Amino acid sequence: MPTYTPPLRDMAFVLHETLAIESSGVPGFEDMTPDFTAAILEEAGKIARDVLAPLNQVGDVEGCVLENGVVRTPTGFKAAFDMVRAGGWTGLDCDPEYGGQGMPYTLGAAVGEMHCAANMAFSMYAGLTHGAYSAIHAHGSEAQKRTYLPKMVSCDWTGTMNLTEPHCGTDLGLLRTKAVPQDDGSYAITGQKIFISAGEHDMAENIIHLVLAKIPGGPDGVKGISLFIVPKFLVHEDGSLGARNPLACGKLEEKMGIHGNATCVMNYDGATGYLIGDAHKGLRAMFTMMNEARIGVGLQGLSQAVIAYQNARDYALDRIQGRAVTGAAAPDKAADPLIVHPDVRRMLMDQKAFIEGGRMFSLWGASLIDAAHHGDAQADGLISLMTPVMKGFLTDKGYEMATQAQQVYGGHGYIEEWGMSQYVRDARIAMIYEGANGVQALDLVGRKLMADGGKPAMAFFEMIKTFIKENEGHEALAKDFLGPLKTASKDLQTAMMFFMQNGMKNPNAALAGSTDFLHLFGHVCLGYCWALMGKTAHAALAAAPSDPDFYENKIRTGRYYMSRLLPETGLRLARIQSGAEPVMDLPAEAF
Amino acid sequence: MPTYTPPLRDMAFVLHETLAIESSGVPGFEDMTPDFTAAILEEAGKIARDVLAPLNQVGDVEGCVLENGVVRTPTGFKAAFDMVRAGGWTGLDCDPEYGGQGMPYTLGAAVGEMHCAANMAFSMYAGLTHGAYSAIHAHGSEAQKRTYLPKMVSCDWTGTMNLTEPHCGTDLGLLRTKAVPQDDGSYAITGQKIFISAGEHDMAENIIHLVLAKIPGGPDGVKGISLFIVPKFLVHEDGSLGARNPLACGKLEEKMGIHGNATCVMNYDGATGYLIGDAHKGLRAMFTMMNEARIGVGLQGLSQAVIAYQNARDYALDRIQGRAVTGAAAPDKAADPLIVHPDVRRMLMDQKAFIEGGRMFSLWGASLIDAAHHGDAQADGLISLMTPVMKGFLTDKGYEMATQAQQVYGGHGYIEEWGMSQYVRDARIAMIYEGANGVQALDLVGRKLMADGGKPAMAFFEMIKTFIKENEGHEALAKDFLGPLKTASKDLQTAMMFFMQNGMKNPNAALAGSTDFLHLFGHVCLGYCWALMGKTAHAALAAAPSDPDFYENKIRTGRYYMSRLLPETGLRLARIQSGAEPVMDLPAEAF
């Protein structure tokens, strides 16, 4: 039976020792003392460990069941959801105006990593609701906010995002769902949406669907898309529930993973919908939700690596098999534990170095969102630039690391009972939804890199350059961390120059290297994070801490990242520099 | 519904145009004219396409069911197995002495790729039987061969390999299954074996289990292991079936994939077994089976990439979404097909370049086995060296490529109905069984590299060097193929030197880089294969062939491999050169 241990010590190291959030000047952070966050994260971690993790396999095995239009979630999900709700966790970083606790998003991200690691399918119900909350909060009318947000903050009502249709996902310009204006100012929504996570279930009184649709006569393509609130049950003025809206779950998809989450085909048959914001401006509102969702999905990728790693590590310490090549490590036993074998260690180190770097990356990114919410334009530019990286890199790597953790188990990893297969299967979707990772790469190279005249990208490089410059007097840091970071950062700049020099003539020259660029960027981000953490650890050690081992091992893990993982930037650059030709050369019919 | 197209043209290109097997001087090959192999492969391909592929999803969804000790295979499996049997496919490359068709193993490998691509779980029943056949053929007594082989060649009786026990897989020295000598010369086998593929099923009259066990009083560890034939039904002298042996399938494992294959817990309760070869020499006999099985598993990895690629390509040509960045490619449609997008092409090119290189690699390897069977010591050394590479590299990459093919489908890839998830899930096991890929890396670096005084490794480098030297006058070949191959091969040699210089002092310095070395080696093998194919294609084009497109596209695909995939060798080398420290530095308790 797999287990989960909340990484509280590591989160404290990132939040307080490295990011020093309480003194970072971001409003809302000043109260987040180490004791305060520790208390909250400890409670959140208990729920993850004791309530959500034990339901993870249950959710996978039972899945959701559709009967007579009603979706039954797996055994225990509803009780757990009630518990999460009762603890106020669903509104942790929501606006107090609507019943939220008003905590920073950064804290929500830390809690999110834990809840998602423990049970990804389960955590999506509240996660999607949060996304829908954000879209209404940012773009809804006052009346809409009063009507829907308090119930969504508490997750008495949950939310969904309805974008995809059978014939279109990425290319939303093609969508066909219609919104016909009614005399009372509402719209009649008709169409079919697919892949709707949490589209129907038995854990909430109401479900608030956010639906993209076209108002007939509007502009063609994405410029004619509007966003609507389409509640499962209509809501009376006094907030009580009214008639059932004509919308239904037509089918549950059989998926590779996240079986505990209901992935619905949703049919809208003249359902009453309410326009959010302006007509034909739906995509902008949807992107409020999407950007937040993308960071959330990046956290999902990371989180599945975390839980998979923890169990692989326990297995490697426990399972005895073979002898260390340098001589028996446990001569009193019939064999040595797996962890003596260098290749097993390599797999675990890959995971550990990715996870700790990725945790720093995601919490740093979350802190930028908080700063941006409080008007920091540079933070806004930076997180906007890094959002596709966070989504694409953390999910690609999360899947790879979950696969590698499964590998540590040998044959047992392939048997469902041991739980490792589920982490791989669950992690797989994170590379696909909220914009497949190729779309993230396109967003990064085709849009974000040159956004605002390239200012955020320049600021990113400047930030790294400054950090290196300010710290290169520190010998150990310079050798183990700053040198490799400099090389990697230079690779990234060279790649950007290549795009600028060649992408103008031939945009394919940039796009052919887009995924490589995203990974190159991701490695530089994690390399930078590791350099920051290395600095923190060195400084802590110099102050003779009570737990020197923690810092020494942090440095060891960081050195592993810098020496064995970061050099991937060179390969990525070489691929980028090979340009469009190898990728575009083959006629379509020759594939 | 996924489909499968036998890659007949490509196989002909490899077998006859590049390997030129019919004139290679290997006995048995001289009759394999292009027409002859084309006729056989076409028939084998039809079975794959029309009989096996349609059952692939059936097998995945239904799985195998254990009821009252009897395992029911999925609907249609038995009829298909009868058809494969009736066509003589199961004995294609078996000894005519026992009813086989006596064809080269190389042809069997080509058929194997197709049958496995179409239905991996199904193809394992005959595949394991073939492995058991080989072990008995090589190590059994005359009487044993007469008794078992004819029925196994025809697959009227199937075979299994029983190595793993709950507490040991890789470390067979720990095994506990006992073989107690009986007065009649047989042994009473008692113990539990796990992960026994095809351990029990309803498609054969009898199942011949090959079981590793210890004879009490024998040497400790792997030196005390013996191999036994333990039939499900005892066989009378006249060949008719006798009493049921006290052995049974106690449980079927719930696995991530290959659901159509019955993975059994096998309980032996004093079952009658017959020693194969000498007592305590079982491991050697088992390795006859294992080495063949490892190449077969490499083919499995390749094959899942093939079927996944074919369907992803079809989807990318058919599905319209978005517009080419360089302007509409299908202006008459609402959007362009996916294949116009550079990043979609990148994914498909990765797959195509791997598949065609991997096909050449596996058929070349198979031809070396044929040569080795006919006494060619150099071929034997070479294939022995490359076996772990073929297993490890082709399965790691096969899984990665299947995952990438799934990615082309976007959200649909995650839905079981589309079939892509199954290829990923099925491919996953190939990285684990028959020696997990980390064990392959250990075998390569710890054993094969220095085997026979390093002669095979030296011969490998010499072969590449000679090829480069002989062809560097060919300008296009030199620029696109030989240059990159030279660089990659040099990386491999540098890595080997690093191991030799550092591995003596500290074996961990070599083992920490073992997986990287395996991948480095795999890339050099595929780079060499691509260079060979590039040469063939250039030569063919010079002779004004009727289908110049085929050769031009072969060169384009090869250039992709050389410019975008082969440079991974540099990264692998950098990791290897980082040595043992980053991998071994962290105390076990700090993970």
Q: What is the compact description of this entry?
A:
Chain A is 55% helix and 12% strand.
Biggest interface and its residues per chain? A-B, 94 and 94 residues
Rg of chain A to the nearest angstrom? 24 Å
- Main sheet record of chain A: 7 strands, mixed
Distance between the termini of chain A: 45 Å
Describe this structure in words.
Two copies of one chain form a homodimer. Chain A is an alpha+beta fold. Among the domains of chain A are: 8-137, Butyryl-Coa Dehydrogenase, subunit A, domain 1 (Orthogonal Bundle); 157-287, Butyryl-CoA Dehydrogenase, subunit A, domain 2 (Beta Barrel); 449-591. In chain A, 55% of the residues lie in helices and 12% in strands. Chain A has 19 helices and eleven strands. Chain A has helices spanning 8-18, 34-52, 56-62, 77-86, 105-118, 120-139, 142-153, 282-318, 342-373, 377-408, 420-430, 437-446, 455-471, 475-503, 507-511, 514-542, 548-565, 568-577, 581-584, and strands spanning 65-67, 70-72, 157-162, 178-181, 187-197, 206-214, 225-231, 233-235, 241-244, 247-252, 263-276. In chain A, a hairpin with a 5-residue loop joins β4 (178-181) and β5. Chains A and B meet through α8, α9, α10, α11 and α12 of A and α8, α9, α10, α11 and α12 of B.
Which terms would index this structure?
homodimer; 591 residues; alpha+beta; Butyryl-Coa Dehydrogenase, subunit A, domain 1; 7-stranded mixed sheet; two-stranded antiparallel ribbon; 12% strand
